[in-house]
Design goal:
three-stranded parallel sheet; about 15% strand
């Protein structure tokens, strides 16, 4: 719904959906910073798509985006959706999640490389396993999420995100890491 609104507003102004979003993000950043009056540290984050670094590249070319301070991504990893029959084998499903966490990490690296040399920080506003399954008693997605091996997969993902992004949020808690950029 929000995407449709941005698309309509951008079309009305003769700009792309992403550039309309960038312009509005910049406006909101200027408003927030004027209210904040520089008395506190304030980081304004523009959200973008973890699975599509090209959207972030396009945002960098849009008017207004430079008034924001960071790009936020949610690098989920979903092994469930990749398998033709994900409810057939729990070990195979966990292997798929293990593979997908590496794909997610590669996407974070792409975003990080894109932002090098800019003033933008990279923020992971949430991350973790996706894949809802069908909710039945035989749903292996539920079992995979509760499996001890998933804890190792999530820790691996979390360790990478914390070492690559200044702020990473997991299940509602903010964990602060070091950003080498």
């Amino acid at each position: 719904m929000a995407g449709q609104w941005a698309q309509q507003q951008g079309a009305a102004e003769g700009i792309s959906q992403l550039c309309w979003y960038a312009r509005r993000s910049g406006e909101m950043a200027r408003i927030a910073k004027s209210i904040n009056n520089s008395s506190r540290n304030l980081t304004v984050v523009a959200g973008t798509q973890a699975s599509n670094w090209d959207a972030a590249r396009q945002l960098l070319e849009c008017e207004g985006i430079n008034d924001t301070d960071a790009f936020g991504i949610g690098p989920y990893f979903d092994g469930y959706a990749l398998l033709p029959n994900p409810d057939s084998d729990l070990d195979l499903l966990l292997d798929s999640y293990d593979t997908e966490v590496n794909t997610s990490i590669a996407r974070v690296k792409e975003h990080k490389a894109l932002l090098e040399g800019t003033h933008f920080k990279l923020v992971s506003y949430e991350t973790g396993p996706a894949g809802e399954g069908d909710g039945s008693a035989t749903d292996l997605a539920i079992q995979a999420h509760r499996h001890p091996r998933m804890k190792q997969i999530v820790r691996y993902s979390a360790a990478f995100c914390l070492s690559s992004c200044p702020y990473t949020i997991f299940t509602g808690r903010i964990q602060v890491g070091h950003c080498p950029i």
